[in-house]
Amino acid sequence: MFFFPLTGKRKVLLRAFLSFPIGPLGNRFFYFCFSLSKKIILWVCIMGVALKATRAVDLQQESIAELQKALEEGGIAVESRPPAIALSGYIDSSYTYNFISAHSGKTAAQTAQIPTRMDSDGIAGGGWNLNQVYLVIEKPLSEINDWQSGFRADLMLGEDAASMGMPDNIVGLSTPNNNGLALNISSFLLAQAYAQFRVPVGNGLDLKMGKFMSPFAFEVMERPANVNFSYGLIFSNLIPEILVGAEAVYPISNLLELTLGITDGGFNTARGGFPFFGEVNNEPFSSLFLGSLRYETPRKNALVTTSILFGPDGADPPGFGLYPGFAGEGVFRESPYNRSAPFVLGDIYGSWIPQVSKDRLLVALELTGGFYNGGVALPTDPLSSRASANWYGASFWMKYQLTALLSIAFRQDWIEGSNNEILYEHVGRTDIWSSTLTFRIDLWENMMLRAEGRMDWGKDVVGAILAPLGLPSVPVSSGPAFFAAIEAAYAFW
Fold it and tell me: Which long-range contacts (CB under 8 A, 24 or more apart) does 175-183 make?
């Protein structure tokens, strides 16, 4: 109850009310005032209770959020129950144009190509493309540290499936009746398929077995998730996209995560490794050993991932060339020239979103390199003489969000291969450079458009597949090789 002094207008009004004549009319007026007062008091009480209840709910939600945050910062997992089976994916299509001559009447193996680009990014001339129809079916693990099991399967259809799946995909044969390779929009690739389970040891140990994407490279197979539309030189030429085997992932803390694994001895295929060349592999040590360490800052605006892959008995793919007469086969194809010898690949990348940019600027850097001591060189005996192969690469990205809908991104790439090439369709020491500029428009939450321009240059950057020294009608060139693309992608979940 509120009290106030009887002064001024309040005193005059009270006297007028008390001096009002009491009679039938006065009784009615008094009863009306009394009833109205009760209703007003009742409504005030109801509104007060409602406001108090609303405030209590808000405080409870705030308390729950604060408690969950405190638990997570203290290293205690808070259970978040995922759906039993989750389905998601996207469709990605484009129009691309490479400003190199497409020789009419020639097959893909007889016309000019840009071998160090992903096959689907290097087709001569221009045309419409179905890059990817990507489906993810999974039973994810929750965040609680307890015995759990689940699975994940990623299915990719389209031209990228042909480019990245060799030799482990379903694709046409590139005959006159079947385009095959990157020209086949119905190609199918099982990008991932693994069973996973959690062992409640320490902070929780997650184990996977099957086919999974490697922790190497800042870029990923899913085009819409990358900063640029086209794939960079490191992703296309120097690292494995897919590995088959088993891996263990352990969060050392909220900021640091360790991954260890053992896989088949080849990139992007099962049963790979020396002497795999369409043969069954029974070598006891033809495996690759994987180690990766990932660190993320407390503010979640920067991360660094460093990874290493070691094969004591080599790897195949990647397929190495035989200098000076035979070109390399790249990371998607085998080679008969690989030998049993140590193979090492290292990669480190990091990304940073400066707080001063208010989440508008992204900067990323990647460095990679490796060596393989199993190559051979002519004119000495190819069965007994070895010559080492080494390779290096560096990439830089910068993306800026101009408005809520529009962003701009830039990428600069460089790769180098030694005489016994890892680079597809190249012979001898080679340096390739690439610059890419991409504009992105987010039309809706789940749909985007991108426009991109790219320029590649370097030793023999443009050539003819299966003829690194050139054909009479398709001479090799050091570029520059220009590329333009328009992309549309729609995601669903």
Answer: 176/107, 179/108, 180/108, 181/108, 181/119, 182/108, 182/118, 182/119, 182/120, 182/122, 182/123, 183/108, 183/123, 183/159
Q: What is the tens place of the pLDDT at every residue in 388-399? A: 789 999 999 999
Torsions phi, psi for 163 (to 5 deg): -70, -45
Q: For 190, list phi and psi in degrees, rounded to 5.
A: -85, 90
- Percent of the chain having pLDDT more than 70? 68
For 349, the token pair is: 């990348």
The CATH code of the domain at 87-492 is 2.40.160.10
> Which pLDDT does position 209 carry in this prediction?
96
Judge whether 324 and 428 are in contact, CB under 8 Å: yes
Whether the pLDDT of residue 381 is over 90: the answer is: no
In terms of Cβ atoms closer than 10 Å to its own Cβ (0-12, 13-18, 19+), residue 300 is exposed
DSSP of 149-162, one letter per residue? EEEEEEEEESHHHH
φ, ψ dihedrals at 12, nearest 5°: -65, -45
> Can you give the pLDDT at residue 69?
62
Q: Spell out where 222-337 has E strands.
A: 242-251, 256-264, 287-296, 302-311
Q: Is 415 exposed, middle or buried (0-12, 13-18, 19+ CB in 10 A)?
A: buried
| Six token digits for residue 472 | 């009479």
For residue range 430-470, list pLDDT tens digits in order: 899 999 999 999 988 899 999 999 999 998 888 765 444 44
Beta-strand runs (E) in 331-386: 343-352, 361-375
pTM for this prediction: 0.77
H or E stretch at 395: strand 387-401
CB 400 within 8 A of CB 408: yes
Q: Please tell me the predicted confidence (pLDDT) of residue 418.
A: 84
